[in-house]
């Protein structure tokens, strides 16, 4: 690979890294906010499964192009990434805002419309109104509790404590990074 190509790839990797980091944080939050309660865990878990499948596919493509002696050895994998980035970029404009965000802003009618779109129901249907009332009640409860970030680190090491959950989640993320799985992608 020519030095000029490396000079372009490094900033590109930096920009892509920030983009992937942003999307990885935001998409989990969005999915958990818009998914129906009974599917929320499966959808959020499925996201990580799809990431793993994507890493497998990327490895297959990289392995398939590694022996090419021209610039297609890196152009093909980079080009294929554009396909998924385009789908994601276009899809972002088609998604409604989170109903929870509308509730936090006091825009309940907008929240009802977003819920109606997400659930395939009319904004004034009983199903949407019930879920909207639940969102409003939860928001009121959260504002009343005002636990803050310190609540993430309370409870000792009991299986049900927040501290244990946070430490285990951080440890799993750290161990994934230690494997180097994201370094070559």
State the major sheet.
none
Structural shape: globular
**Number of contiguous helices:** 7
Share of helix among residues? over 70%
Structurally, the number of domains stands at 3
Which structural category fits the helices and strands?
A: mainly alpha
| Radius of gyration over all CA atoms, rounded | 21 Å
Order of helices and strands: HHHHHHH
Distance between the termini: 17 Å
* Low-confidence region ranges: none
What percentage of the residues does DSSP assign to strands (E)? under 5%
Mean pLDDT: 85
Number of strands: 0
Describe the fold and architecture:
- The radius of gyration is 21 Å and the shape is globular.
- 8% of the residues are buried.
- α1 (3-34) packs antiparallel against α2 (37-65) and α5 (108-119) packs across α6.
- It contains 7 helices and no strands.
- Helix content is 75%, strand content 0%.
- It has 3 domains: 1-95, no CATH class; 98-146; 151-185.
- It starts with a helix and ends in a 7-residue tail after the last helix.
Descriptive labels:
mainly alpha, 3 domains, 7 helices, 185 residues, globular
Topology, please?
Layout: H1 3-34, H2 37-65, H3 72-94, H4 99-104, H5 108-119, H6 126-145, H7 162-178
Helix pairs in contact: 1-2, 2-3, 5-6
At a glance:
The chain is an all-alpha fold. It contains seven helices and no strands.
